Amino acid sequence: MRISKLSLLVAAVLLVSCGGTKQVGVLTKPTSATTNLEGHEYPKINPDLSATFRNDFPDAKTVTVNVGGKNYPLVKGEDGLWEVTTDPLVVGFHYYTMNVDGKRISDPNSKEFYGSNFWQSGIDVPEAGVDYYLEKKVPHGEIEIVKYHSDLTNAERTTWVYLPPQYKKEQDRRFPVLYLFHGAGEDETGWGTQGKLGNIMDNLIAKKEAEPMIIVMEHAVATDPNATGRQNMFDFTFFEKVMVEEIVPYFDAHYRTLTDRDNRAICGLSLGGFQSYTIGLDHPEMFGWIGGFSGSGRGPNDRRDAEMYPKSINDQYHVLYISIGTDEPSGMYQGIHDLHVALEGLGINHIYYESPGTGHEWLTWRRSLYQFAPMLFKK
Amino acid sequence: MRISKLSLLVAAVLLVSCGGTKQVGVLTKPTSATTNLEGHEYPKINPDLSATFRNDFPDAKTVTVNVGGKNYPLVKGEDGLWEVTTDPLVVGFHYYTMNVDGKRISDPNSKEFYGSNFWQSGIDVPEAGVDYYLEKKVPHGEIEIVKYHSDLTNAERTTWVYLPPQYKKEQDRRFPVLYLFHGAGEDETGWGTQGKLGNIMDNLIAKKEAEPMIIVMEHAVATDPNATGRQNMFDFTFFEKVMVEEIVPYFDAHYRTLTDRDNRAICGLSLGGFQSYTIGLDHPEMFGWIGGFSGSGRGPNDRRDAEMYPKSINDQYHVLYISIGTDEPSGMYQGIHDLHVALEGLGINHIYYESPGTGHEWLTWRRSLYQFAPMLFKK
């Protein structure tokens, strides 16, 4: 492993240094959220990062908005509109819902985002000094929606693939590949939509902070047509087979990839982190770099002993990366933190990052990608 | 114009002939809708094409589902679940909503789709003998999500682009381009999602019924940063400038396009049809083929006189295509039908198609694309 363990301090400095000189993300007046439907004024985010919701529900008796883990009742004003201003919100992207007379609904003012197995409203609270995930006037890569046949599942697979700006310009160049998984209750669209992966990578590559790379945002679910009964969501055996025998070979055959392990990484968030550790550590011949954001272990039993994490890992992988938000549910935080401690005890080199003040949410994962991607494929 | 007017009969035959020998789309038992969230059993579509909705709203007092233009009250059963079976539904894709105690919500069992300026549930009712828009094991093109800077709007533009299966395989080949617009209240994702454009084109190209072509699914909105006041939605002057000066040049510079008018088409649905007629007829030097699905006219006043449709059009364009669903709102139907009659009176060659039994909905537009695409770029 060429990159030694980074301290939380170094990670935090890395994160803050991205802001540049212009104080982006600082609101000087109430501003419509970027996640609103086009032309919708509310919700607005205020300079103190509270949000003001304002809605027209003419016949409603009670209206609340559930955002940032808290319920806020809206009050009907003299103009007949319901309104509330929340406490200051944590920065980053939050799914949220409204509740009208006891029924959960999406906010009619917001775009909707797929997460936790359903479509929800979303609000993106800007972070002062941080613009690494914003759309900028830099060369843009493309995200391709790719469909191909899988013999093992006897179905078509749909995958989103990020191609760096160099991919089309340099027709003879081959690129390293990061396989990147979403979490449970999400799908292959999450990283490219609320994850802002396109902006993060475009910006990192424009500043030459990350190698131009292909990123395969796999659907990461595979159903064995011959299996019976309900599948354990932590049993990736069949998906691992599809990954190794079909998915990686497909992209090596159809894209200008570099096909050696030094140029292939595997990473994911939450359930996708478990998948990455499981598949990545099973296949050192395929993957040289492994990451798990808010979810990393090894297989169904999440074992952390010397048998599962032998010292040979130190020679096999360039980077093992693990991250967690400090405000994630305590069980999640403890699990990842304990893995980090266990790996230290076993003498397994790894990079451990705690995202300050964020939960099991997309800002933890945007920050983690923003850290992890620049480590990859360095010569 | 090389293709003379097709009769409704011929069009209907074309449409029916796509089924092949296998009776696809015929339901022999109640079947979960393909538009359901993964793993959700209801709504189910029954063999008579009625749909059964079944939902768990434990505290609700009244529940209705609004689908196919009609409200159906759900009844709470002894198992505590709310259920209703609708009348037989019109085939094709329908947006729908539920209403719980007076509040409009999406069906928690359904995927959501963006249309009419908000996210809604959707249900796709299969059509017996019709599989042209279904996912099949054929070579698949890719859909790219492309982002690039526009100087005129001083913003980044995001566009979805269909690339035919041949695009990557035949690296020296150049392809004709169809610019395809969505309707008002939709965005650049509509054609590739509920429009099923990828499947339609993959299947047509696999059967050699359509030329392999690039399809640019433009966002088709451009805001002039220097304009003041609210823009008339039927005034496309600024978007036309962006289209001619930036969008077409961008794709000609960055994709392997054929750049002459004989290899460039413009088409759209509803408001996008008006845009296509306006921009297409203004620029015979750029576009050789024009289509309008459920929306076609010419500019703000929708003029249909000899000055706006001179006979020279007959020599300038290979195809003018107009379509409308027979069950669209009467004003929409009458407007398009009257345009067809007016063009006949003016001696302007065109193809006119009425989609039997469908409304201002995606099946009208899937059928229209399925007809229009094979006409394009024939030598």
For the structure shown, list the relevant keywords:
homodimer, 379 residues, alpha+beta, Immunoglobulin-like, Rossmann fold, 2 domains, eight-stranded mixed β-sheet, six-stranded antiparallel β-sheet, 8 helices
Explain what you see.
2 copies of one chain form a homodimer. With 379 residues, chain A is an alpha+beta fold. Chain A folds into 2 domains: 112 residues, Immunoglobulin-like, CATH 2.60.40; 234 residues, 3-Layer(aba) Sandwich (Rossmann fold). In chain A, 23% of the residues lie in helices and 26% in strands. Chain A has 8 helices and 19 strands. In chain A, the strands form 3 sheets. The first copy, chain A, has an 8-stranded mixed β-sheet, with helices on both faces. In chain A, strands 4, 5, 8, 9, 10 and 11 form a 6-stranded antiparallel β-sheet that branches. In chain A, strand 18, helix 7 and strand 19 form a beta-alpha-beta unit. Chain A starts with 7 loop residues before the first helix and ends with a helix. Chains A and B meet through strand 9 and strand 12 of A and strand 9 and strand 12 of B.
